[in-house]
Design a protein that fits this description.
Elements: E1 2-8, E2 11-21, E3 24-29, E4 32-43, E5 46-51, E6 54-64, E7 67-72, E8 75-81, E9 98-99, E10 104-105, E11 108-109, E12 112-114, E13 119-124, E14 131-132, E15 137-143, E16 146-151, E17 156-161, E18 168-169, E19 174-178
Length: 179
């Protein structure tokens, strides 16, 4: 079972793929179940899709790396999805946020991980007692619509996590303690 957090026209939606059989999917959207069958595979950018027995023509256009514009029956939907993260829990997306390619590596003094810049914590990937490797992401810090992975510069055990998702931090604030 695959779960995704997506934004449709900037409104959060939880989508779970419960079952797949060739071109037919059992999908749950915000706890409502639908049977979705792709009648004609994408030829270019258009596909015929059957949802609970009703046929729709869908035109899909990529706007950004993780943003699609989907047109169905004269209505246009902007769909933003999170790139797959295999080890992290589902995360609620912020509109038009971009994840940087290189994680920010912090200096750690006396086992304390501090924020390299001011911003908002959008994802915490560690918890107290967790073993962590050098370069592993501790949290994701958003500043100026950019999401930056904050990575550990040493291996160890997380003794404390001092932030939570949604927290606003200043440069130099303690995010975690690694021993």
């Amino acid at each position: 079972m695959t779960a995704h957090e997506v934004l449709v026209n900037e409104k959060p939606q939880r989508v779970r793929v419960l079952e797949r059989n060739d071109d037919t999917f059992l999908v749950e959207v915000n706890e409502k179940r639908f049977t979705v069958k792709i009648k004609s595979p994408s030829q270019g950018k258009t596909a015929t899709i059957e949802i609970d027995g009703k046929l729709f023509q869908a035109h899909v256009e990529r706007i950004l790396r993780n943003v699609l514009r989907v047109k169905i029956g004269g209505k246009s939907f902007e769909v933003q999805y999170q790139p797959k993260i295999t080890t992290a829990p589902a995360v609620t997306l912020e509109p038009k946020a971009v994840i940087t390619r290189r994680p920010i590596v912090l200096s750690i003094e006396k086992d304390v991980v501090t924020a390299p810049i001011a911003g908002r914590i959008v994802l915490v990937r560690t918890k107290t007692g967790q073993k962590i490797e050098r370069g592993e992401c501790i949290c994701v810090l958003e500043a100026m619509k950019m999401q930056n992975e904050v990575a550990a510069v040493k291996a160890g055990v997380v003794k404390e996590v001092r932030v939570s998702e949604g927290a606003i931090v200043d440069k130099g604030d303690v995010l975690a303690v690694i021993a």
